[in-house]
Structures are given as structure tokens and as C-alpha cells.
Design brief:
mainly alpha; 20 helices; globular; Growth Hormone, Chain: A
Length: 434
């Protein structure tokens, strides 16, 4: 007779651990960008591309790997992504050990980009874990569960943005990346021991027929089930316009979060001429606050709804972006950074409260589109910020934040549209029931 193991909280723990391990790669180049810039003589745009490169694989791979969860559960996609990240970190460590600093020049820039691309595969674990956690928890608790998952996992970039400059001072670039590689290997082994698929996928892996697996899993408390194959999940969710609305909002909040976590060390060092450790602390403040507030944001979304939460979050992000754009005062810029962290963190929680609500028939596919294309902002935005610096010089570090003003305004309008649509649909259902 088929058996199942684990609980929603155990499933949440394993997914959060795996995501924490892989997501640290967001900070792979941000705190070390100045060293690469100096020895390889890189322009601001090339620095922007370098710090963004891990986000490219970390965003685009979310789409197929999240949909893969709908066919096999999250455990196997998690392990594949973490293994690819280990390969990238191993290659990067070897290059740094053998060539840095005297023999690392501009001709090796494409190789560094490629290794950063591989290392960033672990970032894609986010949408895998979102799907995995969504299948574990009932809809009434998903705001809290997904907020907790993403909030704790999102702490990793901030923590590494703070620790990496300290490690650089003690161990050098090569030693720091080697320590990161060891962390990644140990973390992957821990996920291998603790990662659990939801009950339905456990039963399917034991050969239980789909309908019977649903009945058994439903008795255990599982509410959400996959629509079909990987292709089906992507296609079904792609036909729902709300999937694309959520992509735009997530591009602004989560893509913006990844972009700023990578860009802020350069911003603080270059615009306000602070030291590397101070820049790291300010970046860590932003990244950790964005992550922790996401937990609170999930609970708020459970109470007042995802749409209302998203609107409030985007207004806060807008105020922070305006202040960052006009401010040449250090303390005002710190306040603006905090406002952007609060807005982006709560906004991220709101979006994934809405995914299972708006696309319940294909959560994995929707999470893939939203998590993947939304996170693409982490790759697309830093080079844009670099262009502002190249065109305007020093002042471009501030004026580049107009990018976030535009994103916040567009996303806020879309969130309002989602709210109006939800109210109309709710009213129609009540009228039909009456």
C-alpha cells in the first residue's frame, strides 16, 4: 500500500533551505565588482552586465524548472539546479586561483560571464520552491507560507553581500570563492537529506494512479494539484492574462530587488565614496530588510488581499525611487533605500499570494512565467543603470533610479486593474449564487 511522509512545515523547511543555498548567487559579483573592474579594465556598462549575469540563468531557467515541478515535484529540479551552480562556482574558483590578479585580463571576460551564468542557476530554485510550497499548503495559509519561504531564502544575498567583503579582506578573492563553493556543496547535501515533495507527487513516484493519488493526498489536506504535463502547465498559464500582469509587477519588485542587490555596492562606493565594508553593510541592510519584510507582507496579503497589498507596496517603492533619484544627501539616500526595500519586499509577497489565486489550474507554469520573466529584471536593469553612468557621469548613479519610478508607476496601474477585475468577478459570482 502506498505511503506518504512529511508535513507542510517539513516541506516548507526543505524548500526554504534549498532556496537559501542557491539564491546567495545574486551577490556573486556585486561586492567583488571593483576588483574585476580594476584588473580587467571594465567600463560601467560591462560592470553592470557582469553583476547581472547570474540573474540571467537564475531568471530564465525558472520557467521550465518551475513547470517541471508539476510533473515530478520540486526535489529533482532543486538538485539539478544546485548541481549546475556547483559546476559554475568550481570553474570560477579555479580561474581565480590560477589567473587572478596578474593574468586575469579583458580577454577572459566572456569566460567569467559564462561561469557566472552557471553559478546563477541556483537562483532559479526560487520558482521551484514556490511551486513546491504551494502544493504543500492550503490556500488559506499560502500567503504566510510563501512569504516565510521567500523571506528567509531572500536573506542569503544580503548576508553574502555583507560577509564577502569581510572574507575578501581575510582570505582574498580566491579564498572567498572557495569558501562559497564549500558552502554550496554542503548546502546541496543538506537539501538532498531534507527536501520533500508534496504527498501527491510522493504517491505518483510510487506508481499510484493520478486519480487515486489525488484522493489520498486530498485526505491528507492537499488542496492544489497539477493540471498535466510540463507543456500543459506552461500553455494553460500562458493563456491566462493575469499571469502576464503578475510578470510585469514581479519584474519591478523582485527583478528590481535582484538588480539593486547587485548594483548597490557599486552605487555606494562610486557615488558617495564610502569604503567597501560600509557599502556592503548598506547593501546587506537593503537585501535583508527586503527579505524579512516579505514574511510580514505575506501575512498582510492573507488579511487584506494580494491586490491591495501590491498597490500599497508599489506606492512605497515609488516614493523611495523618487528620493533616490533626486537625493545627493547620504542620509536621505539611506532612508530612500529603506523605503524601496519595504515596498519591494511586501510587493514580492503580494505577487505570489496572487499566483495560486489567479491561476489555480497551473500553479507551476504560472510560477515559472512570473518568477522567470519577472526575475529577468535582475539581469536587464543593471546594464540600464550603467548606461546612465556612462552618459551622465557621476550624476548618473542617482538619475538612473528614474528607471524604478517608471516601473513602479506601470506596475501600480496593473495592480489596480487586477483589483478591479477581482471585484467584478466576485460580484458576478455572488449575483449568480443569489
Amino acid at each position: 500500500m502506498p505511503t506518504v511522509k512529511g508535513s507542510p512545515n517539513e516541506g516548507l523547511f526543505g524548500a526554504t533551505l534549498g532556496f537559501f543555498i542557491g539564491f546567495a548567487a545574486v551577490s556573486l559579483f556585486g561586492p567583488t565588482a571593483q576588483r574585476f573592474k580594476e584588473v580587467m579594465d571594465l567600463s560601467p556598462v560591462l560592470v553592470g552586465l557582469l553583476v547581472a549575469m547570474p540573474a540571467l540563468s537564475g531568471s530564465l531557467l525558472r520557467i521550465p524548472f518551475s513547470a517541471w515541478v508539476d510533473t515530478t515535484g520540486g526535489r529533482k529540479p532543486f538538485l539539478v539546479l544546485l548541481a549546475l551552480s556547483i559546476v559554475g562556482m568550481l570553474g570560477l574558483s579555479l580561474v581565480i586561483f590560477t589567473l587572478y590578479p596578474d593574468h586575469l585580463n579583458a580577454s577572459l571576460y566572456p569566460l567569467i560571464l559564462l561561469l557566472g551564468l552557471l553559478s546563477g542557476c541556483g537562483i532559479a530554485t526560487f520558482s521551484v520552491g514556490i511551486s513546491q510550497v504551494s502544493y504543500w499548503f492550503p490556500k488559506s495559509r499560502q500567503g504566510w507560507a510563501l512569504g516565510t519561504y521567500a523571506g528567509i531564502g531572500n536573506i542569503a544575498p544580503g548576508l553574502f553581500a555583507f560577509l564577502l567583503p569581510l572574507a575578501l579582506a581575510s582570505w582574498g578573492l580566491a579564498g572567498s570563492y572557495l569558501a562559497w563553493l564549500i558552502f554550496l556543496i554542503i548546502g546541496t547535501a543538506l537539501y538532498y537529506r531534507s527536501g520533500l515533495n508534496a504527498w501527491y507527487f510522493q504517491l505518483r513516484s510510487q506508481g499510484t494512479a493520478a486519480q487515486k493519488a489525488k484522493r489520498v493526498a486530498r485526505r491528507q489536506g492537499q488542496e492544489i494539484f497539477p493540471a498535466g504535463s510540463l507543456t500543459d502547465s506552461l500553455m494553460i498559464s500562458a493563456r491566462v492574462w493575469k499571469s502576464w500582469a503578475l510578470v510585469v509587477i514581479y519584474f519591478s519588485t523582485f527583478g528590481g530587488f535582484i538588480a539593486l542587490t547587485a548594483w548597490l555596492p557599486t552605487y555606494w562606493e562610486s557615488f558617495f565614496a564610502v569604503g567597501a565594508v560600509t557599502a556592503a553593510m548598506l547593501t546587506a541592510l537593503y537585501a535583508i530588510l527586503t527579505s524579512v519584510i516579505r514574511i510580514v507582507g505575506g501575512s498582510v496579503a492573507d488579511r487584506i488581499g494580494g491586490e491591495n497589498t501590491a498597490i500599497l507596496a508599489l506606492l512605497t517603492m515609488l516614493v523611495g525611487a523618487v528620493l533616490m533619484t533626486v537625493s545627493h544627501d547620504y542620509y536621505l539616500a539611506v532612508l530612500a533605500e529603506i523605503l524601496m526595500a519595504l515596498g519591494m519586499g511586501v510587493g514580492n509577497a503580494a505577487v505570489f499570494k496572487l499566483v495560486p489565486q489567479e491561476v489555480p489550474e497551473a500553479v507551476g507554469g504560472a510560477a515559472g512565467w512570473v518568477g522567470g520573466l519577472g526575475a529577468f529584471g535582475g539581469f536587464a536593469i543593471p546594464p540600464v543603470l550603467g548606461i546612465f553612468v556612462r552618459v551622465q557621469g557621476q550624476s548618473g548613479y542617482a538619475s538612473g533610479f528614474v528607471t524604478f519610478i517608471v516601473l513602479a508607476i506601470i506596475s501600480g496601474g496593473i495592480a489596480y486593474l487586477l483589483k478591479r477585475t477581482h471585484l467584478v468577478q466576485t460580484g458576478s459570482r455572488k449575483a449568480s449564487a443569489a
